[in-house]
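Task 17 of the worksheet. Students: predict the tertiary structure of the chain below and write it out as structure tokens. Keep your answer in the requested format; marks are given for formatting as well as content.
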Amino acid sequence: MGRGRGVIRVIVGALLLGGCAQFYWSKPNGTAEQFDRASRECARDAAPTPTAAAHGIVDERIYRACLSALGWRREKQWDPPPPGWFRGIE
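Model answer:
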């Protein structure tokens, strides 16, 4: 019975830790300022209205495709992310 509880604890711990990772964006030599500019531009393109864009209401598929087209790549990173990774509208 003790071994079974240990296995359960390991599984639960792994699931909890998995929840700490979030998606971030990076680009070789990309700066926070460049990402902020690209993110705002893509949010405008992916939003139904300018007001919606200002509030982060966007079509996530269009937003992600726009950032990808600008050379940014999206990956899961542990919090806090390594330098050069930035959080978008997610």
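Marker's comment: The first helix runs from residue 2 to 18. Helices lie at 2-18, 32-46, 50-54, 60-69.
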